[in-house]
Write a structure and sequence with these properties.
By secondary structure, this protein is mainly alpha-helical. The protein has 13 helices and no strands. It has one domain.
Length: about 300
């Protein structure tokens, strides 16, 4: 069973990521999605830089065997940002966000398959339930009025959705790689290093494709919370890895954020709850309970 402190960190991470999705919806309506991706990461790196001022010099060293996980984490982080936000230029975030949050399930599978985390039947059952629950959330959050029978399923394989699926793979790999550094490096230092790598790759891509540009003050007002909330959620997740396996923490926090978005849409936006959505909510809740109590 997870410790209360770990549960709290994972819940806060889920809450912050759900809030990020809400703000992202506004931000990508104000500025090109790829610019939102780059400038939000730049802004998100600022609080990490401030935290570094409180570290001792010996805490900012990097072991040789940790260079490759940090660099790869940065590469996968850049891959996630470029693919997911590219998809936002073609499809609504309400559909793409749940798809992208399958990254927690992917991270869990990678952690068990490549990084030696233990597999248990209850953990496998929880991951399956979480996957199905998030797919049902895709139909719920991403549905449109007057959509014909079967067309909602086709949305999962639209061009924009395919970018989100690819982004989920990149993000899942990034989450899994954090296992290798979480217990030996301060969170702010490790995150700052791989964010710098990710930003460098994104900047090169934007310059090469002639998509780089600055944003206005009005656009920055919406972009800044995207970076701050996203980094804060990642920081909480990183802290949880000191006592929680990634195969539990990643699916808990990512699918939890989808659950919170579903609940928000029903309570505050007064959307009607249909059977398919209720099943999705129940599956995600059951998966989270399995991960937190029995896994």
């Amino acid at each position: 069973m997870l410790e209360p402190a770990s549960l709290f960190l994972l819940f806060i991470a889920a809450l912050l990521w759900a809030a990020t999705a809400i703000v992202e919806k506004k931000a990508v309506g104000k500025a090109p999605p790829l610019l939102v991706a780059f400038w939000s990461r730049l802004i998100g790196a600022v609080p990490l830089l401030i935290l570094l001022l409180f570290l001792q010099p010996q805490d900012t060293s990097v072991r040789a065997d940790l260079v490759w996980p940090i660099v790869l984490a940065g590469v996968f982080s850049a891959g996630w940002a470029l693919t997911f936000f590219h998809g936002l230029g073609q499809e609504r975030i309400a559909l793409l966000y749940p798809i992208q949050k399958i990254d927690g399930v992917i991270a869990a599978i990678v952690a068990m398959a490549l990084f030696g985390e233990a597999f248990m039947p209850v953990k496998g059952a929880a991951l399956m339930l979480a996957f199905i629950g998030v797919l049902l959330a895709c139909f719920s959050l991403g549905r449109q009025r007057k959509r014909g029978q079967g067309q909602e399923f086709q949305l999962l394989f639209s061009r924009g959705a395919m970018y989100a699926w690819l982004g989920a793979i990149f993000s899942g790999m990034n989450f899994a790689l954090m296992i290798l550094v979480a217990k030996v490096m301060p969170p702010a230092w490790a995150m700052f290093l791989y964010v710098v790598v990710a930003m460098a790759i994104m900047l090169l891509y934007l310059l090469a494709t002639k998509r780089f540009g600055f944003v206005s003050v009005e656009q920055a007002i919406w972009i800044a919370p995207v970076g701050a909330l996203g980094i804060a959620g990642l920081f909480c997740y990183y802290l949880s890895l000191k006592s929680v396996p990634a195969s539990i923490g990643a699916p808990f926090s990512t699918t939890g954020s989808v659950l919170l978005l579903l609940i928000f849409s029903k309570l505050f936006l007064r959307e009607k709850l249909v059977m398919r959505e209720a099943i999705g909510i129940a599956l995600i809740i059951f998966a989270i309970l399995l991960l937190s109590v029995f896994a």
